[in-house]
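Section 3.1: Structural characterization of target chains.
Under the original work plan, the team committed to producing a structural model for every single-chain target entering the pipeline before any wet-lab resources were allocated. The record below documents one such target. The sequence was received from the expression subgroup and is listed exactly as submitted; it comprises 111 residues.
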Amino acid sequence: MPDWRTDTLSRIRELIFEADPDIVEEIKWRKPSNPDGVPTFSHDGIVCTAETYKDKVKLTFMKGASVDDPKHLFNASLDAGTRRALDIFEDSDLDEAAFKGLIRAAVALNA
């Protein structure tokens, strides 16, 4: 059933393609416990993945620890060695311009 998470993921997808029209979306890691798989966005390597959970949409940036985040959007996996994540909750107010900047910075790291 569509709900706020579906709407949020749809908007995130739009923002990602606005930030980088050449990014490629694939579904990876299908398994019995997650038959829909994980939307994965790549440009010269994986940029980020998007997963929905009961209470959030999680965007995990593969090289997030190396991405400049001046607006402090990363709010999860902050102690991870390489990855950083952004958890978006139902009442979150995402800075869309800053998010597109994160996408562009992550793509630049892969280049």
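The chain has a mean pLDDT of 93.
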